[in-house]
Amino acid sequence: MPETTGFYILHEGPIGVFNETLEELDYDDLVEEGSKNISSTGGWLGMTDKFWLTALLPDQSVKFKGRFNHIAQGDRFQTDYLNQAGVLIKAGESASATNRMYSGAKEVNVLDDYEKKYGIDRLELAIDWGWFYFLTKPIYFALEFIDSQLGNLGLAILALTVCIKLLLLPLAHKSYVSMSKMKKLQPEMVKLREKFGEDKQKLNTEMMALYKREKANPAAGCLPILLQVPIFFALYKVLFVTLLMRHQPFYGWIVDLSAPDPTTIFNLFGLIPWSPPEFLLIGILPLLMGLSMFLQQKFNPQPADPVQAKIFMFMPIFFTFLLASFPAGLVIYWTWNNCLSIAQQWYIMRRMGVSVSGQSTKA
Known about the structure:
By secondary structure, the chain is of the alpha+beta class. It has 2 domains: 13-84 and 97-128, Beta-galactosidase, Chain A, domain 5 (Distorted Sandwich); 137-351, no CATH class. The chain has helices at residues 27-33, 108-118, 133-150, 153-167, 169-184, 186-196, 200-214, 222-241, 284-299, 306-323, 328-351; strands at 13-18, 21-24, 35-41, 43-48, 52-57, 63-71, 76-83, 100-105. The strands form 2 sheets. Strands 2-1-4-5-8 form a 5-stranded antiparallel sheet, with no helix packed on it. The radius of gyration is 27 Å and the shape is elongated. The mean pLDDT is 85.
């Protein structure tokens, strides 16, 4: 049983394409099933982890039976296939069979070239592009191009995030305008909750009347955000699963964008000669991300429920600890994206005459 990252957005284990359909199996499932057989004409099968692939590439014109197998003795896993079509060789004639294997890094351009050169069906799916494949791969090529122009992947991540922000500007504008209206109404909403706190029905009626009177829609800010989620998730996926960030330096103490921030506040960022346990490795980048998330919350309308409001207060702390173990490139992207959102939201709120606290100001 090999070690895996165990992250839910990444498949690691037996993988293959059969009859133009991607098949992914977990090691644990294969242990329970013992083996799995699939017949196909064209395709491939093998084992993968985050960055590496070993795959068998049968003759794409011949029907074969692929097998994923768990061998209990030694707890071993095996992938193999058997050609099911016989070859008739007449007297004086000869025949040949070609079988290929790919073993190496999952480099996008290399896999794409092999797919075209040898006609391997959907070999590109060895990279876990995710549900938003139609977005993830174009974003990868855009990031690769920007990196080739700037010569630094960290700068390319910042530049691409700005480009995506500009592309989504109309949607984000509608969302932040709606949030600003809700922020402006917060003092009135607090008064209504104090007045009708015990009468939920009356409170909801008065809230709806307030929204109608002020032409504010609480749900208006949600749809634009939901439409942006697939794009930002696709960018996150690109940074997480591809080889682009592997061993790529940024500036200062970040010598590998694919590794977590090596500093930690608990030894004063290296000034104290002590190595804290892994869960206390909270570096400078995760702290900046947590701070940006906290500031962004201040710009958003506060939840009506006091319990929800308290939970939201702890979210930046939770995400600071969560992202501390993430690759530095991902944390840089997340922090930069938060900062751009804050700047955009502050500008829109200022134009609408709303302060961060929700009080009206001169527009």
